Amino acid sequence: MTSGQKTKPPKPDKTPAAAATIWLDHDPAIARLEVIAWLAFPCADRAAKAFARLTWWPAEERGQTVPEKPSRLKERLAVIDRRFRERLLAGSLYAAKARRWTRAQPPWNDVRLPPDLARIIEAADAAMDNAQPPGTLETLRRVADVKAAGDRTWFRKLTAESRPVAHLAAAWVEHASVRPVADLRDIAFGARPAGELAAILRNAEGLRSRIAADPSNNTTADAMLCFAQRPAVLAGQGV
Asked: Are 88 and 169 a contacting pair, CB within 8 Å?
């Protein structure tokens, strides 16, 4: 028996986000599962495992054999569900902050709106804040309460884990047609409007710069991953 130094196990893939592009499948239904997986676990290795489990889910329900025991698969899907909803909570926070911070910057901060238009914008803000439970205003209040109480652990953990996908989570909150209180199976596999995922990805890129521009977010544009779908013509050629 030979002796020698023990081989250390490889470190988990943290996927440093700097200017990295995550290429999603050209099929919106598959790409949607990939987005859910990345939101739940913003690192390459764990996102890949989450995506695999999401694809096994319908097969297991049909009684087909999948690479994981049904009880274990159920447990892991519950974890994906919980973490995905945590990311939507962070997304509601980032979306609200992006809207409010943008309006506080030039040239918008100097705009004097007629009272009727100001009321319309206020009503639109309230509708958006209430459209995605727990609601962005409630989230902002909770953050303020946590900070005031001196207990920043919850806030730090939520924002730190969400930064690589903060823009994607915010875009999902603002543009997805399904409410986050829906069952994860419906969120993952339910019918969606044509072009919805493309709109989410497009708006995520706009939110990237707006989130980075707000210094209170403590992040930069290149610290957030870029998500893009592969063109169908290239996907068919294996590119």
From this structure: yes
Coil, helix or strand at residue 227: strand
Evaluate the CA torsion angle 103, 104, 107, 112 in order and state its sign. Answer: positive
CA angle centred on 174, ends 90 and 162, rounded to 5°: 20
What is the mean pLDDT, run by run of 10 residues, along the chain of 239 residues? Answer: 52 50 95 97 95 97 94 96 88 80 50 60 60 53 65 72 93 81 90 93 92 87 93 62
pLDDT at position 90: 85
What tokens were used for 11? 């470190």
pLDDT of residue 85: 87
Q: How far apart are CA 171 and CA 96, in angstroms?
A: 11
Region of residue 175 (left: phi > 0; alpha: psi -120 to 50; beta: else) = alpha
Identify the pLDDT of residue 196: 94
In the prediction, which pLDDT does 2 show?
A: 47
H or E element: which one contains 226?
A: strand 226-229
> Distances from the Cα of 17 to the Cαs of 40, 148, 226, in angstroms?
16, 31, 8
DSSP for 70-121 reads: HHHHHHHHHHHHHHHHHHHHHHHHHHHHHHHHHHTSTTGGG----HHHHHHH
Alpha-carbon gap, residue 237 to 106, rounded angstroms: 47
Which residues have CB under 8 Å from 233's CB, separation 6+? none
Cα 48 to Cα 61: distance, rounded to the nearest angstrom: 21
Task: For tokens 């439970």, name the residue.
Answer: 133
The Cα–Cα gap between 99 and 49 comes to 34
